[in-house]
Amino acid sequence: MLRVTGRALPRREAELLRRAAFTYDEVGGTHRRTTPPGYRTVRRSREIGSGTERFEQAAQTLLAWGMHRRTGLRVRTSSDEVSSGAVAILRLGVGPWGVDAPVRVVYVVDEPWRRGFAYGTLPGHPERGEEAFVVELRDDDVVIFTITAFSHPATWLAHAGGPFTRAIQSWLTSRYLRAV
């Protein structure tokens, strides 16, 4: 398993995030065929290679928070590996211009030919919603990485950002797709 360690969340901070309520009602919504109505929805897939070895490597990167780190985010987590209920604070930006985005893992996908997870937003995140990241080894040996998300602005800054906020989300999604 790929071990990409980062700065751990202090135990007390991690416990507070585990107890915090999600900032949206449709928890697990990315696991359904259709995302909840009324949100901005993103669903993007990319072929990332072929074969079992590539599938395993992509899954390991994803489940060790490696995708997030490779995009340039600062990642502080409650555990080095993704697990149900794990919490993280993702930070985009530098110094006082950075934005913290607290999340908690909603579910983990652990099937022979599909692996991944979804996390939901917690208080302090600039958005409200959920994002899922799943790698799949198809019958034709092609490995596909899919991101599914739904969200609303949660802060005045995210709301005021309008098209700029959506452009940042799109840019980050593209970086996630390349990082795996």
Structure, explained:
This protein has 180 residues and is of the alpha+beta class. It has one domain (7-179): START domain (Alpha-D-Glucose-1,6-Bisphosphate, Chain A, domain 4, 2-Layer Sandwich), CATH 3.30.530. 28% of the residues lie in helices and 37% in strands. The chain is built from four helices and eight strands. The chain has helices at residues 11-19, 52-63, 66-70, 156-179; strands spanning 7-8, 40-50, 74-77, 87-92, 99-111, 114-121, 127-137, 142-153. It has an eight-stranded mixed β-sheet. The longest helix has 24 residues, at 156-179. The protein is globular and about 45 Å long. Residues 1-5 have low confidence and may be disordered.
Quick summary:
With 180 residues, this protein is of the alpha+beta class.
Q: What is the domain total for the residues?
A: 1
Low-confidence stretches: 1-5
Number of strands: 8
CATH topology: Alpha-D-Glucose-1,6-Bisphosphate, Chain A, domain 4
Shape: globular
Distance between the termini: 14 Å
- Tell me the helix content: 25-40%
Radius of gyration based on Cα positions: 16 Å
Helix and strand content put the structural class at alpha+beta
CATH architecture: 2-Layer Sandwich
- Determine the number of helices (DSSP H or I, runs of at least 4 residues): 4
Topology order in helix (H) and strand (E) letters? EHEHHEEEEEEH
The CATH homologous superfamily corresponds to START domain
* Strand order of the biggest β-sheet: 1-3-4-5-6-7-8-2
